[in-house]
Design brief:
By secondary structure, this protein is of the alpha/beta class. It has 3 helices and 3 strands. It has helices at residues 5-9, 21-33, 44-52, and strands at residues 13-17, 37-41, 60-63. A 3-stranded parallel sheet has the order 2-1-3.
Length: 71
């Protein structure tokens, strides 16, 4: 990551959607170290439920485009 990126991530909320546990864990931990709050979803269905839930909001979404339960 570029210099200064950590300051830019402080206080942000990032949604990470991936069905690979290892990928989700590494990405979430990396982002959390930069000061952001992370919500993870392991399937398309759980991501859709989160996105549709009252008060759901995020600044950035990182999404696996080939989820097992995706179309």
């Amino acid at each position: 990551l570029a210099a200064g990126t950590a300051a830019d991530m402080a206080g942000a909320h990032v949604l990470v959607v991936d069905d690979d546990y290892d990928v989700t864990t590494v990405v979430a931990r990396t982002i959390e170290r930069l000061g952001a709050r992370v919500t993870t979803c392991s399937s398309l269905v759980s991501a859709q439920q989160y996105v549709r839930s009252p008060g759901a909001a995020w600044d950035l979404a990182i999404v696996d485009l080939r989820l097992d339960d995706g179309e």
